[in-house]
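Re: beginner question about structure tokens

> Can someone show what the tokenized structure looks like for a real chain? I only ever see the sequence side.

Sure, here's an example I had lying around. Input first:
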Amino acid sequence: MDKHSMQNKAGNPKANFPAGIPPQYPPAPFPGPPGYAGYPGPQDSFPAPPVGYSGPQAAYPAPQAGFAGAGPAGFPIQGQPVYGQPGAPAGTSWMPAPPPPLNCPPGLEYLSQIDQILVHQQIELLEVITGFETNNKYEIKNSLGQRVYFAAEDTDFCTRNCCGPARPFTLRILDNLGREVMTLERPLRCSSCCFPCCLQEIEIQAPPGVPIGYVAQTWHPCLPKFTIQNEKKEDVLKISGPCVVCSCCADIDFEIKSLDEEAVVGKISKHWSGFVREAFTDADNFGIQFPLDLDVKMKAVMLGACFLIDFMFFEHSGDKQQRAGVW
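And the corresponding structure tokens:
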């Protein structure tokens, strides 16, 4: 027997015992290398928490049924700012959706809790560089700076650049979920007070396809005047502007009045945006004020009136000159 076979038998306990007798294993584990003392025992207990530490808190309870902050599944918690909605730049804060009141068209519930709207037209670099008219885009915000809606014009290239500010247009207004909640339709009409039979008008639809009101220009030789009408084209309010609708370093106000024009219930203001923005772009800023308890449909119609006023008086024409009045 060679040396290799003897080492294999010596290392195999079965090789030294007859069949049927189990091998005898050592009762203790094999010793480790010199200096090895085995695994360390359990460590000392962790130090006690500092004084005043209240310990782990219990989980918050679920909102109770009927709680105003508990919206339906998929909707944000009421009263909290919302970020990163579709179509919004990173970090844009959206107004959270409030509970809809009775008989409110879907998407107009945001207007039920505000008495002021800020309308900011976005600067189009392509339009500034080339001079070609592009589709207007607007951010519609509340007084806290939270975005309520986003409005985008939908007009073809030829109509924009051939008809200029007098062009017919479709303006689509989207909410924070990207749903079209309002549509504004402006037909092609005359832009001069010399033709009283074909004055400006805009139709407000909410939801799209369902008219909720109109804004119709009222003939006047000097002043810009409009009538706010409901879905049945019944007069509800009046709008009256200044004789000269251009000013430097100051706001321009269009007052919203009662039918008898005795009481002022709100106003549409064109805000001064600075010399550079006013001189080289047609991106305008507006503010709309109205009573908090006003019907949401009429608030939406006032928003439509703001866009009509913007196109009529503050959009630059081909010669980069805006109108100074109704003539």
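Each token stands for a local structural state, so reading them left to right follows the chain. The CA atoms of residues 238 and 260 lie 8 Å apart.
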